[in-house]
Each structure stands twice: as C-alpha cells, then as structure tokens.
Design brief:
The chain contains 22 helices and 18 strands. By secondary structure, the chain is of the alpha/beta class. The strands form five sheets. The protein has a six-stranded mixed beta sheet with strand order 5-4-6-7-1-8, with helices on both faces. It has a five-stranded parallel beta sheet with strand order 10-11-14-9-15. The longest helix is centred in the C-terminal third of the chain and has 30 residues. Keywords: ATP-binding, Nucleotide-binding.
C-alpha cells in the first residue's frame, strides 16, 4: 500500500489525468504510531500529496456527498461525521456540476488550479443517459490539460495545470474518451497490504483481537507469521473486522478465529482426518477403483502431505494455497472420476463433498463469468458464480474439473489465480477462500498415439509428456503447468488385464446383489463358471483396452440389468415375489446366444 501511495505522488506530479483503481476504499495506516489518528482514507492521502506539491484546492465529486472541498474553501476532512447536509445526488447531477467547474476554469485563467477527484467511476459507463455528458467532459478536460508549449520552461510549467483523479475499483469502467491516446493520462493501482504491512497491523493492534494468543501477535512469533500468511489478500478493513468477533468462550486462537470467520468452523476438516484410515488409504481405494495401483499410491502420498499442510511447501510458504492439486490423465472409463469421489469420501466422509465441473461446458469466451459471476449490471449478477458459490457454501470439498483441456483460455487465468493465491474474487467482490479445497483436474490428453498394449512405465511417461507438451507448446501456458506441478500429473493405466476386468465386473455384481436384496427381497446367486462366462461375453463385444470401466458398466446394463428387470417385472405380475420371504434367483449366461437369463 505504501508503495502504491508513493507511486500516486509521483504520477500526480508527472501527469494531469489519473485513474486510481484497485483497493481504493480501504483504510490506510498513518505513519505516526503515536498519533491519536491511526487510520486515514485515500482522500487524506491525496490531500497530503496535494499540499506537498503546492496545490491549495482539492475538490471531490461523489454521488453520496455531491461536491465537497477536501482542501481549500471549505475543508471538511476534520468534520467527516457531519451529515446534516447529506444529500444523495444522481450521477448526472454530479457530472453536470463537474462540467460547470471546468467551464469556469477555462473562462477565467486567473482561477487557481485545482485537483478534482471524481469518485463515481464504477457506474460511469453503465448509463446511456449520461453518454453526451461524458463526451462533453472529455473535451473540456483536453482543454484544461493542454497548453501552448514554446520552450523547456513551458513543459515544466505544465504541472501548474489542474489535475483530475478518477477513483474506481474496476478501472475497466472508465470511458476511453478520457484515457485513449492522452499523453497526460496515467493509471495507479492501490494494492492491498503486503506481508510487512500486515505484520505492522498485528504489531499495532494485537490487543484488539479477542484471541488467547493475541500477545504473541505483537512478537516475531510463529503465531504472527501464521496470522500474516492467513490474511494475505485481505484489505486493512477486512483484517480489522476480525477484531469485531466475540466468541462464546474466550479460548480461541487467531487461527481458529480466522477459520470461524471464513468457514463457519473452528477447526479444519483436514485436521480431523482419521490417521489410521489415511494410512490404509491405498487398500481402501484399491477396493473400489480397480487396476490403478500406481495412481492410488501417488494419491495417498498427496493426501498425507495435505493432512500435514506440506503440499507445495517447497514452492511457497503461503498457508492459503489449496490443500492438494492433482492432474489425472489417462483413457476414458479408467476410474478418474470414481477415484475423485472416493477421495472426497475418505477425507470428508461423504462422496457428495465432490463438486464436479464439466469443463466442456465452459469453452466459450464468457465462460469465466459462469464460474465467478456476471459483472455488475449484467444478467446473472445476482446469482453469482457457480464455482465461487459452491466453494463459499462448501469450503471443505474436493473440486473436480473434468476434461479441463476443453475449457476456454480465460478459464485458465482463474485456475492460475486459485492455484497460486488460494483465493478468487467473485463478481460481487467477495474474496472466496480455496485453502481448504482439494483440486483435481482430469484429461484424456495423451490417449491418441499411445499404445495400450505397450510397456506400462513407457505409457505413463507418454501421458506425462503429452500433458507437459499441451501446456507448454499448445496452450503456451507453462506457468500453469508449474503451478500444478509435474509430480502431480498422475497417469492412469489402460484396463488390459483380464483379472482386473473380472474384478470390476464382480464388484458391480456385488453392488447389484446387495441393492436387489434390500429393495425387492431378491437374492441373486451365480457360480464362478457363470462369472467367467459373463466376463467372456462382455469382453468379446469390444477390445478390452478400448472399453474401460465405463464400457464395462454399459455392457453390464445391457446384458444383465435389462434382462433382470424384465424377469423381476414378470415375477411381480405373477405375484411370485415374496415380500416377507427371500426369493432366490439364479443367473445363467448362455454364451452361444450371447445373453444372460435369470430363473427361480
């Protein structure tokens, strides 16, 4: 923030038309710690700069207060709480008054030059009714910001001209008429407090926070380092808002208070993980996802790192990065989505904690608005973004971005921000925290040109190389690959082993038997020979490596489910299904007729 104000001072001397954006409505720390006034706003900063560079008048136009003198005829900075004359003005009124002041200055060369602040730029472009006024103001500005230049002294004396400062959170809303090809124009972005400035906030105001470790926030301690890291991306006001929170008991640490404010929970769900279950994660996951031992071993290691907060620690000490990042690459139907579900179930006890986004639906230029929300004034703004809403409601979740290679390039910019900063700003200016999420990307990149019957180690290397090539040479986004991490690219095996094929079929049949027993009181039985015949029947329809797990399920539905449904339906029509007694049904596979039958 300090560097931003220093840049503002330089640019205000150098240029005569400024656009100030970013964190413009935040509070700034005063330099003098002993002063009664610890904070000030951007108006105060501009007035101080104006005095230093020799201006005696600073006039501000805003819809909330109309025209006010911050410095000069009616200095109101020391009387900011006097609202007796408060009146809300329309943007049109404010712009008309500003134009009148410009006309008076042009007509009277003896009027002392001023600094004008226009603080309603957020809505300047969104109203068709003021378009003519905007154009008129642009013409008048060009008149007062230009002068005849005959020698080097005239160039220097241009700093005696009036200056205009536009203030806007979103600098994209400023009309091009004011800035386009204007050599007197410059923009300044006010940043949020950096690491040292956040440390200074805790050093000065540690007593304000209702936490048991507040005394340590004033020291060079791990508690202050943690508090500074957690509040990265926060404005000064947002940090101080944490001091307002009163808990039911006075036994909260700052980290717990932060978690309560951000996620409505005192403790992280990651800290509640069953360590014994995590230690047994490979066995648990291999029971559900067949034939992917290599991928599951890598997933287990990443989950252990996530539980300890060590993922990505070598690249950054930030505490607000996602808990884990994985990139699943491999053939369709090999268990990528299913493994993501099981990760959610393992970590959070509920596979519904998986939030899935089909990235083939986000392949248009405006698709990023679906994720974070439409801009103010556009259809869908009130609804917010699908991604930001989902994480806001479920901060402890697994995010699955399926077929990520199909997403539009603008979506990748959002991913970059999430992976690097652990946060994403919604269209409503809400800072959404992704630090408790686990992010998984899936892709089929590398399938084309890979030999399913080749050496498994070489196949995996081919998948990894294909993903790297896609980011570096196709997308030209190596920085995104670096944020994901090459070690986090997890290739999935082709399902070429008949044993694995059989295990998948048997696993699905077990689920079917259990479901029928509960729902219809029907118990299905089959011999190992019948199971082998079923495997042969399904395998002969398609090449085994092309089917994948999804192909197996489709074939089972066609051969088994459809036949079984007809059988049960006919039994119901004949009243041959007992509601109290178990009905025993045998499954038989007739290989020569390529069908499955059921009989009592």
């Amino acid at each position: 923030m300090k560097k931003s104000i220093e840049q503002l001072k330089v640019k205000l001397q150098q240029k005569n038309l400024l656009l100030v954006g970013g964190n413009v409505y935040d509070t700034f720390l005063e330099n003098n710690q002993d002063s009664k006034k610890q904070f000030c706003n951007l108006d105060n900063k501009i007035v101080n700069i104006a005095k230093e560079i020799g201006y005696k008048d600073v006039i501000k136009f805003s819809p909330s207060k109309g025209k006010i003198f911050l410095l000069g005829e009616q200095d109101i900075l020391d009387d900011e709480n006097d609202f007796e004359d408060f009146e809300t003005n329309s943007i049109k009124q404010i712009l008309e008054e500003f134009i009148n002041d410009l006309k008076n200055e042009i007509q009277d060369k003896d009027i002392s030059r001023k600094i004008y602040i226009i603080d309603f730029s957020d809505t300047l472009l969104n109203q068709e009714s003021i378009k003519d006024l905007v154009e008129q103001a642009a013409i008048l500005l060009s008149t007062i910001l230009e002068d005849d230049v005959k020698n080097q002294y005239d160039i220097i004396n241009l700093n005696k001209l009036s200056k205009v400062i536009f203030i806007s959170r979103d600098t994209g809303n400023i009309a091009n008429d004011f800035s386009s090809k204007n050599i007197e124009f410059a923009s300044v972005n006010i940043n949020k407090p950096n690491k040292n400035e956040r440390a200074e906030i805790f050093n000065r105001f540690y007593r304000s926070f209702n936490v048991i470790d507040r005394e340590k926030l004033n020291l060079d301690s791990k508690e202050r380092i943690e508090a500074v890291a957690l509040t990265e991306g926060f404005a000064v006001k947002e940090i101080m808002q944490l001091a307002r929170i009163q808990t039911e008991d006075d036994n909260y640490t700052f980290k717990e208070l932060f978690s309560l404010a951000q996620f409505n929970k005192r403790d992280s769900e990651w800290e509640k993980m069953d360590l014994n279950q995590l230690n047994n994660a490979d066995n648990i996951l291999n029971e559900v996802v067949k034939g992917q031992e290599f991928a599951i071993a890598n997933v287990k290691q990443t989950l252990i790192n996530a539980s300890l907060g060590l993922n990505g620690i070598m690249h950054s000490e930030k505490l607000i990065k996602p808990k884990g990042i994985l990139f699943f690459s491999g053939p369709t139907g090999t268990g990528k989505t299913e493994l993501a579900k099981q990760i959610a179930k393992l970590v959070f006890g509920d596979e519904n904690k998986l939030i899935r986004f089909d990235m083939s639906e986000y392949n248009h230029e405006e698709s990023d608005q679906r994720l974070i929300g439409a801009p103010p004034g556009y259809i869908g703004y009130d609804s917010g973004g699908e991604l930001t809403n989902a994480v806001k409601e479920n901060p402890f979740s697994v995010l699955l971005f399926d077929e990520v290679e199909k997403a539009h390039g603008r979506i990748l910019d959002k991913f970059l921000q999430i992976l690097e900063d652990g946060r994403l700003t919604s269209s409503k200016n809400e800072l959404i925290d992704f630090s408790e999420t686990f992010i998984i990307f899936t892709s089929n990149i590398g399938v084309v040109g890979n030999n399913p019957k080749g050496n498994q180690d070489e196949i995996r290397k081919n998948f990894i190389r294909a993903v790297e090539n896609h980011f570096v040479n196709v997308l030209k986004r190596p920085e995104l690959l670096n944020r994901i991490g090459k070690k986090n690219i997890i290739p999935f095996n082709y399902i070429t082993n008949r044993v694995i094929f059989k295990e998948i079929i048997e696993s699905k049949l077990t689920k079917l038997v259990s479901a029928l027993n509960k729902k219809h009181n029907v118990k299905i039985s089959y011999t190992q020979d019948e199971l082998e015949n079923l495997v042969d029947l399904i395998m002969q329809e398609n090449a085994i490596e092309e089917m994948g797990g999804r192909g197996i399920i489709n074939s089972l539905s066609e051969k088994v489910i459809n036949s079984l449904s007809i059988f049960i339906f006919e039994m119901k029509l004949k009243n041959q299904l007992g509601m109290e007694n178990i009905t025993h049904v045998k499954m038989k596979v007739i290989a020569n007729k390529e069908k499955v039958i059921f009989e009592l």
